[in-house]
Amino acid sequence: GAGVSQTPSNKVTEKGKYVELRCDPISGHTALYWYRQSLGQGPEFLIYFQGTGAADDSGLPNDRFFAVRPEGSVSTLKIQRTERGDSAVYLCASSSRSGDGHNEQFFGPGTRLTVL
Amino acid sequence: GEDVEQSLFLSVREGDSSVINCTYTDSSSTYLYWYKQEPGAGLQLLTYIFSNMDMKQDQRLTVLLNKKDKHLSLRIADTQTGDSAIYFCAETRTPTASKIIFGSGTRLSIRP
Predict the structure, then answer these.
(1) Nearest residue on chain A to B50, judged by CA atoms?
(2) CB of A113 closer than 8 Å to CB of A85
């Protein structure tokens, strides 16, 4: 079936604006993750949902960042008052427990956010 | 220091073996991973190893884990041009695996 999809693929905005990034996980996956990858770095964890609830939001950098998953499927990452330092690729992943207990996360292609 | 460390670059000749190394700091790491990222493509899980194992082989890939030294390596046999990518070492710290902690990545380039 289809993999994780993210829209838009690219987003250019101005400093101070509000942006929303969308993630469609693999159908049936109960867990959904957001990561941020800055240039030349590995992905950094932002937030993890199990169903509709945020099970771990310890990676959100500040209160300008917020994410929701109201029906336990699609998730939206919301960034208020964007700053130039928010420019990065935002990655979404989803997972479902496998037989050996391992929890493979399948990543989407990402949304490249550029804040001018 | 960083939780997961890797060297930034590796260059190998086509057909040779590539060995990418990684060190991690947390002894409670449960699963250790190798991900591949090609330009314009998403992260692809190559292989993973559970912390109670010391080796895992999967076709051209061999993962070695030295838990005492907190050292993980990925060997790619018969390296091909299609193996050019950035390789990320990563770990999780709980069996149910919420967040994955990634290294900064090693860029592998293949020379003819």
Answers:
(1) A102
(2) no
